[in-house]
Design goal:
- It contains 12 helices and 12 strands.
- By secondary structure, it is an alpha/beta fold.
- The strands form 2 sheets. Strands 2-1-3-4-6-5 form a 6-stranded parallel β-sheet, with helices on both faces.
- Helix 3 packs parallel to helix 4 and helix 8 packs across helix 12.
- The model has no long low-confidence stretch (mean pLDDT 93).
């Protein structure tokens, strides 16, 4: 995207004091500033600049982006960026953009507990529920670079409201089974199997957990990538059923270290957060909260067995993680 930011003159990009962290600049980018303003650090800008330093002003950033989108619609494609948790500060402005159907693209980084040491103040375990529920909003949580490409294509072409592309801080495995075309439908089958016992739903930065778990299970597991509720709701009922196959009696288990609110509509059980996060290095934090493949294997197999013998009622969402491992 760095090349696109530089080449597409309609893009007006900015961030709330996080330029080195969100990685949204491009070669020889110019800052939007009055040319007579001499900053205490950094280069002098101009009115030709297309990169905005908003400072620690997330709400203002969102409000200005709305104004840019509203001015002579189509002239600008405003892009904001910040850590996902800080879009809580921007939420009133983002909501107004959704209410007015303004095509702003918000890039939310550091969206996973896997970010690690920043701790619970920066780990947005509950925030996706807000943006997934927001009318006219396309909240998209891509799994890897392939899905990110699809997310950008969808977001640039969406003109009926804002989009939010939610990505991680940490490096992610490239599984080789994701699809930018599949992302455009909100959810899609990444790996199908005959006579499946369970569907594993992987989401965003944790999609690779579904891939690893499927390989370990002693039962047959199909894999679904589910980056966007909003895009999936736009698909036909027939398509939705073909992806989830719950109507065929196959239970679904979702893996996402956010609160489970909303997943009861699409899954029967899940590995989700039931608390705030914790300050730990990324390589330890997943284990701390129970996102351990051996433990997940045991709990998934037990759930499927209980589900099949009827000891778990249909429509009863089962939380498969009790809480932190301490």
């Amino acid at each position: 995207m760095k090349e696109a930011f530089g080449d597409v003159k309609a893009f007006m990009v900015g961030t709330a004091d996080l330029t080195p962290s969100v990685n949204m600049t491009w070669k020889n980018y110019e800052i939007f500033n009055p040319p007579d303003l001499k900053p205490t650090s950094g280069s002098v800008g101009s009115y030709k600049g297309r990169y905005v330093h908003y400072g620690i002003r997330e709400h203002v950033m969102g409000a200005i982006a709305n104004g840019l989108a509203a001015y002579n619609p189509g002239t600008f494609i405003p892009i904001t960026s910040s850590f996902f948790m800080f879009y809580l500060y921007a939420a009133p402005a983002v909501r107004m953009g959704a209410l007015q159907r303004l095509p702003v693209i918000h890039v939310a980084t550091h969206d996973s507990i896997g970010g690690g040491e920043d701790g619970p103040t920066h780990q947005p375990v509950e925030l996706a529920a807000l943006y997934r529920a927001m009318p006219n909003m396309h909240y998209i949580r891509p799994a890897d670079s392939e899905e990110v490409a699809g997310a950008w294509e969808v977001s640039v072409n969406y003109k009926q409201g804002p989009s939010m592309i939610s990505v991680s801080r940490q490096t992610l495995p490239q599984t080789g089974i994701t699809s930018r075309e599949g992302l455009k439908k909100g959810a899609y089958v990444a790996k199908e199997v005959q006579d499946a016992d369970v569907t594993l739903i992987g989401v965003g930065a944790e999609f690779h957990f579904a891939v690893k778990l499927a390989e370990k299970l002693g039962i047959k597991a199909r894999i679904v990538s589910f980056p966007s509720y909003a895009l999936f709701r736009e698909q036909s009922k027939e398509y939705q059923r073909s992806v989830l196959r719950r109507n065929e009696g196959i239970p679904s288990v979702v893996i996402e270290p956010y609160v489970s609110l909303g997943w009861e509509r699409y899954a029967d059980a899940g590995f989700n957060m039931r608390s705030f996060g914790h300050s730990l290095p990324g390589k330890y934090i997943y284990d701390y909260f129970g996102f351990n493949i051996d433990s997940m294997k045991r709990k998934t197999e037990t759930f499927v067995s209980d589900w099949k013998n009827g000891s778990i009622g249909r429509g009863e969402y089962t939380e498969l993680i009790d809480g932190p491992a301490h």
